[in-house]
Amino acid sequence: MKFGRLACLASLLAMTTSSSALAQGADYSRFGIDQDVPGACSYEAIDAKDYSGRQLNIITHAVPVIGEPTDLHATQFAELTGAKVNVVHVPFGDLFQRILIPFQTGQNAYDVLFYGSLWIGDLNPFLAPVPEAYQNVSGMQDVTRNYIDVAKWGDTMVQYPVDGDRHYLKYRSDIFSNAEAQARYKDATGKDLSVPETWEDYNEIARVFSGWDWDGDGNANYGSAEVTKRDDLMFSAFISRAAPYARNPNVKGGFFFDLETMEPQVNNPGFVKGLELFVDASKDWAPGGASWGLGDEIFAFGGGQTLMSYSWDDAFVQAQQEDSAIRNHVAAAPLPGARDVWNRKTGKWDHFDEPSRAPYITWGWTSAVSNRSTSQDMAFDYLCFFSNEANTQHDLQVGRFGVNPYRKAHFDPSLWTDKMGWDAALTDTYVKTLAGMDESQNRVFDLRVPGVSQFMTSLATGVAAALAGQQTPQDALDGVAAEWKSIVERIGVDNVRDAYARVVALEDNL
After folding, report:
1. Which letter does DSSP use for residue 221 in this model?
2. What's the rounded Cα separation, in Å, for the pair 161 and 151?
3. 341-399 confidence digits (pLDDT tens)
4. End-to-end CA separation in angstroms for the chain
5. Per-residue pLDDT at 178
6. Angle at 129 between CA 128 and CA 133, to 5 degrees
7. What is the per-residue pLDDT across 272-314, written as a single tens digit (0 to 9) for each?
8. How many angstroms from the chain centroid is the CA of residue 410?
9. What CA–CA distance (Å, rounded) separates 327 from 235?
């Protein structure tokens, strides 16, 4: 049986669910899952479909992060349905253009797209709305509000949630609680060793724990693993560091811009302070740490080389894999905050006795179907299968895959303790840290406006110049702000403002 029209999708989903129920008990363990989970996009449901003689074209990130699970589930989908699935892998620095250019030139190059969700401002005109039938499947109904919002452009869902991303602090709990480590830190600083509350604390701890063998394996360890490669997500690392100094809980209406005036804020004293601390931290990075991409950060912290890290879940999950030497010796905490936060309304610093936090709900991987695809039925089935409950539970356990919690069920501690064998105390830090971001009213989201790739490239170039000592932090960010003004003028101030207003609503949790 072949399916070619989305108009009959709802009835087809019902049919496959029904046929799945008749075939309960089928063994799909050969695909690496613990067990199938009944539903419209389960292994049994997809197995009932026949896409033989048809080809699905997918573009995705390079292996391993998101590219590896794309391959894995493409192979499974092909075996189950008879489809031919062609997967193209592209490095992050080239992925945006490789997706956008075919659309601009009128080509129908890919059916399924995996990319950074912040690109929605440029890509939304080319994306097929997610059909209601798929929005009603159990997995989609369980997606948290944050990632439903991230998937929408206006009121229309045009991205298919497959991941939930945010930055938070990861640290070696065994070292922080070690008496010898505590004594060494006390001798060096006169302070008690504790989880860093500010980025000043973070830098100081990283400095003390860099360049010596604090885990006794015969190799030098370091304090911090950070994403620092200009073309590999370094802009996100900088935003995490700048956010608490520039995102004032008493000032609404924009973090990157003042929404009323559309004046860039990227060179205000809060952003400059964040960059000064980033530059200060660079003195204590591991050899080669000035050009680390996301993969390097994952394996440096996840492999036990560094004491702390602060990007996505991937490094934490890597540390928690069953063969990890540091499994159950890590913990999670909110990103460090700031005791002094810039207030753009008053032009002064506001002091907070308790550090102000600014959770960063960073771009995250997403997926979509091209509105030019002639195989939208098969494309949405693939994405629904990719993200079904059985596959997602598997993928969450593989750090290098880049699939992180995005459903309500993922914040149930029993998922991690009972099914994945995590320590209960560790799980408590993880679940509370991640879930708490959904409630914050001082959050930072990515820009998500037309031209976002231009804005972020400009930001990364300026930050890289400061890290390399080529410019002062203030001069570097002044240059970025000037470029941002030019980009806004080129795209159109109203176009950027209208899109940015949606970001501001997310940040202020309206």
Report:
1. B
2. 6
3. 999 999 999 999 999 999 999 878 999 999 999 999 999 999 999 999 999 999 998 98
4. 46
5. 98
6. 120
7. 999 999 999 999 999 999 999 988 999 999 999 999 999 999 9
8. 15
9. 29
Name the token pair of 440. Answer: 């914050």
Q: What is the model's pLDDT at position 11?
A: 38
* Cβ atoms within 10 Å, residue 297: 29
* The pLDDT value given to residue 232: 85
**CB burial of residue 489 (10 Å; 0-12, 13-18, 19+):** exposed
Q: Using alpha carbons, select from 31, 71, 77 the residue that is nearest to residue 55.
A: 77
Give the per-residue pLDDT at 510: 56
Neighbouring-strand partners of residue 172? 330
| C-alpha count within 13 angstroms, C-beta hemisphere, residue 165 | 29
Alpha-carbon distances of 272 from 149, 153, 342, 463, rounded to whole Å: 30, 32, 10, 10
The pLDDT value recorded for residue 391 is: 98
Tell me the average pLDDT of the chain. Answer: 93
User: Coil, strand or helix: which one is 324?
Assistant: coil
Largest CA distance in the chain: 73
- Which residues are within 8 A (CB) of 177 and not within 5 positions of it... i.e. 6 or more apart? none
Nearest CA to 53 out of 114, 3, 110 is that of 3
Spatial CB neighbours of 460, under 8 Å, sequence gap ≥ 6: 230, 231, 234, 235, 238
8: left (phi over 0), alpha (psi -120 to 50) or beta: alpha
Torsions phi, psi for 369 (to 5 deg): -115, 135
The helix (run of H) or strand (run of E) holding residue 458 is helix 452-467
Which domains are present in the chain? Answer: 6-161+363-404 (3.40.190.10), 169-334+354-359+441-507 (3.40.190.10)
β-strands 365-369, 112-116 pairing:
antiparallel
CB-CB contact of 16 with 40 (8 Å) = yes
Residue 222 CA to residue 95 CA, distance in Å, equals: 32
- Residues 52-73: tens digit of each pLDDT: 999 999 999 999 999 999 999 9
Strand-pairing partners, residue 222, are: 306
Give the pairing type, strands 55-61 and 84-90: parallel
- How far is Cα 251 from Cα 455, in angstroms, rounded to an integer? 23
The identity of residue 474, as a single letter, is Q
3-state secondary structure 368-416: EEECCCCCHHHHHHHHHHHCCHHHHHHHHCCHHHCCCCCEHHHHCHHHH
- Count of all residues that appear for the chain in the document: 510
DSSP letter assigned to residue 131: P
How far is Cα 188 from Cα 217, in angstroms, rounded to an integer? 23
Q: What pLDDT does 441 receive?
A: 85
CB 364 within 8 A of CB 165: yes
Residue 465 and residue 476 in contact, taking contact as beta carbons nearer than 8 Å: yes
Tell me which residues of the chain have a pLDDT lower than 70: 1-25, 510
